[in-house]
């Protein structure tokens, strides 16, 4: 079970309205974000959860990326602080039935220790960092931005509703 929405100062939560029918998610969930930070590099972590009618939240999938390896790059990229860049976080395959009247919740943060190691917020290999620094991340969404959650095959009551 997960803590409540916005459970830490560095976590932002987005919650849907209650679902009108059960939905089965089959495949990889992808989250696209337009982001920026005041650091030379940082991590972005996304959790997709089901919030039941009683308010209990359960993790469906979690994913992470860094600005240095955004876009699935195999080679470290540079990042200029305070610029807006797109990132994409593709999560592992899942088969999950989200119950009628549940809500979807998306948590976005820059740290999910101890599941993932702490990012130093400096460019370079995090495992070799000698110090950490605080940083300020921003998520850009709405008109003119491509931030979105993309669900794979969705089925409701046995019928497919989209990719």
TrEMBL record:
- InterPro entries per record: CocE/Ser_esterase, Galactose-bd-like_sf, Xaa-Pro_dipept_C
Any one GO MF term held by the record is: dipeptidyl-peptidase activity
Domain named Xaa-Pro dipeptidyl-peptidase C-terminal is located at: 6-121
Q: From which domain of life does this come?
A: Bacteria
Is Hydrolase one of the keywords UniProt gives this record? yes
| SUPFAM superfamilies the UniProt entry points to | Galactose-binding domain-like
Keywords assigned by UniProt?
Answer: Hydrolase
This protein's name: CocE/NonD family hydrolase
